[in-house]
Amino acid sequence: MDKLLIVWSSGEVEVAKKMVLLYSSVILPRGYWDRAHLMIWGPSVKLLAENKELQEMLAKVRETGVELSCCVVCSDDYGVTEQLEAMGVEATHTGELMTEALKTDWKVVTF
User: pLDDT tens digit string along 89-108?
Assistant: First the structure.
């Protein structure tokens, strides 16, 4: 099974729109990967909580079956945990999944 972990930490809108969320929205429907997980970490947590356009794009990503999580420490620091969970993003200790992905057969890409 081909598995991809996308780590999104950039706080830049254009990186989110033109790379992270655009790519994430097509990877499962086009069959590029069998399983995909978008991990939202650091400044991207705040950016997503503040930007309605990115929230709409994330909803489309979620609809394709891409799994979503965010760093609970980051989301708590920014005060946006409940807001992200309402979008279908699981707030968790992302270091565990990151470590598992790096030690096993996941491919990992970071933005």
Answer: 999 999 999 999 999 999 99
